[in-house]
Amino acid sequence: MRRVMFFMLMVLVSFGRGIAQNLTIYCEDDPPNQMLAPDGKLTGMSVEITQEIQKRIGNQDPIEMVPWARGYDAALKNPNTVLMSMSRTAERNPLFHWVGPVLESNYTFYAKAGSKIVIKSLDDAKKLERVGVYNNDVRESYLSQAGFNNLERTTNNIQNFKKLMSDRLDVYASSPNQIEDEAKAAGFKASDAKPVYTFMKVQLYIAMSKGTPDAVVKSWCKAFASMQKDGSFAAIHKKYYPTDPLPGKAINRF
Questions:
Q1: Of the chain's two ends, which shows fewer C-beta atoms within 10 Å, N or C?
Q2: Tens digits of per-residue pLDDT, 38-47?
Q3: Does some domain include residue 254?
């Protein structure tokens, strides 16, 4: 009887380890949430949150930085895939499991600092000649669905900032908590651009693909909740966004 119970215990332990492993974890280059440090290691707010969750559940799968379109496609099609950080929208809500929110953001059109462009509505923005967006990003999707025919797409917003500074764009879509890092990476200052119109407010999450076992999803959510309770999430958030409030209650109805 003892041998049978020992065998069953070993099976359960192995199963538990299996739940914690075998995840494909992706992030994009999107400072300060996900980025490469000078030593080449991944860092950033979402990366640190994910790594802390991994510690708490015993997961050691590596995080890989890939282009957003690749990571999103994998998370959409393949089980056991994690992608950070993703805006939770009405369209995306039923497509993934959600861990968070880890951040709140206002998506905003930015113009060159000396620009005389005035935008009071999306219709005003539609009349511009060139609006820069990050390809396959939620902002690009939202504006496309809103009927914008003047979008110019790039693979990241650093390119958009450079294009804005060289007068190849009228505005581009970014957010207040990303503009400083985008400007710095492009070789400029955040003050070289100015916000002209906020068109969308979102919460960002760690997304997990459908088909990922419920036990895995629950373990990630439980670990994140424990981080919220013990203050470790607040500490990481404050490290990267010292003046921003913590995200509010999860918005899961649209």
A1: N
A2: 999 999 999 9
A3: no
